[in-house]
Amino acid sequence: xxxxxxxxxxxxxxxxxxxxxxxxxxxxxxxxxxxxxxxxxxxxxxxxxxxxxxxxxxxxxxxxxxxxxxxxxxxxxxxxxxxxxxxxxxxxxxxxxxxxxxxxxxxxxxxxxxxxxxxxxx
Length: 122
Description:
The chain has one domain. Helix content is 7%, strand content 46%. The chain contains 1 helix and 8 strands; from the N terminus they run βββββαβββ. Strands 1, 2, 3, 4, 5 and 6 form a 6-stranded antiparallel sheet that branches. The chain has a two-stranded antiparallel sheet with strand order 7-8. It is flat, with a radius of gyration of 16 Å. The mean pLDDT is 86.
């Protein structure tokens, strides 16, 4: 008897449609909310998720924010939520540098050569 299983990372775009005035570039844009997570698949069926992180990207200047997990969970469950500035933590601004791992999607500082999460070269 054998099992086919694996661990992988994924990104899911959440349904959030609100037009805002960006606090970084002062232009109209939208918040694009997405969730990243790691999951265990058994026989190619995702069975268990963990390590959920919620992010917001602005459509005007592509600034990336880390979203408060309680707000992210409410958006995931379909609630109508207003995202405030205090719910956001800046991850990457217009002039900031970061590297995204092509293997797992982790956002690492630009001075890293290897991903601190999975160990692959950035």
